[in-house]
Design a protein that fits this description.
The protein has 154 residues and is mainly α. It contains four helices and two strands, in the order αααβαβ. Helix 1 runs antiparallel to helix 2 and helix 2 runs antiparallel to helix 3.
Amino acid sequence: MLAVILSPLYVLVHIYIARWMYRWVKKCLRIDSHQYFKWFWFAVVIVYLLFATAMGVFAAAGVFCVAAVTALGVWGVVNARIIHTTRYETVIHKDAGSIDQMKVVLAADLHMGYNIGCSHIRRMAERINAEEPDLVVIAGDIFDNEYEALEDPE
């Protein structure tokens, strides 16, 4: 009987918590009108409601874990194919003879293999050549798995 009397309070507390979660996520992501934010918020509310019910805790935990691992995996594959460019300007107070300035390109962590192939490296080489560098430095992991994993290793 007490559960029936307290159930409206239970619902109100969860609405209050969901409202504060919404405000917190909105502030953290700093997006107000983005279309994906509405879907993200909908997913957060569904996961929260599943966790809030006693019978759905294990199902919700499983769904949440599968969704999180899948989303992170997809994000990683997509992000790995994007070539990021960051520009820095540095002044070195050292005598370099007749060299006034030098443009250096650093290509780091190529991770060629099963996911990153020759076409991706060609695109990267084109972007590097477009910068017209004086020096190209390759650092970090060049191969991810095996050299033979490339489509055309020659």
